[in-house]
Amino acid sequence: MSTQTRMALFAAWLSGLVFAIGLGIAGMTRPDRVLGFLDVLGAWNPALMCVMAGAIGVAAIAFRAIRQRPAPLLDAQFHLAPPRGPDRKLFIGSAIFGIGWGWAGICPGPALVALATGKTAVILFVVAMLAGMWLGNRINAHLES
Predict the structure, then answer these.
(1) pLDDT tens digits for 4-26?
(2) Does an H or E element contain 100, and which?
(3) How far apart, in Å, are the Cα atoms of 130 and each of 80, 123, 133, 137?
(4) Distances, alpha carbon 58 to alpha carbons 40, 55, 71, in Å
(5) Dist CA 143 CA 89 (whole Å)
(6) Could you tell me the pTM of the whole model?
(7) From the centroid of its chain, how far is CA 45?
(8) What single DSSP character describes residue 115?
(9) Quick count: other Cβ atoms within 10 Å of Cβ 10?
(10) For residue 27, what are the CA distances in angstroms to 52, 110, 133?
């Protein structure tokens, strides 16, 4: 394994660790926090909005600075998705994501962090999430063939 590959893996691991710690500190691994944000007519909790605003602010500054570079630090080029407008798959996927998030109160990133708790509900959520990803990939492959 090359030094550049090891550095890229370390950077990915460190990014994931910082993300996990941030989610844990903000309490975003607790479904009651997420559901509290979605309960706008009841006991509304704005904590998730504050976390999102902070993340968007940091990302906006970082993306602007990064895009000024000719290439990323640990790769030869940027790998960006081609620009395209919203389509049916985007709307359907967003709806499924939102329904699942509102129903379970768990988002995929925080769910992976919350696996460390060993709670059955979190494990079941992650298993269902992985099954849904697998099924979605199978459906997409079938529709594209």
Answers:
(1) 889 989 999 999 999 889 888 88
(2) helix 88-104
(3) 24, 11, 5, 11
(4) 26, 5, 20
(5) 11
(6) 0.71
(7) 21
(8) G
(9) 11
(10) 13, 9, 25
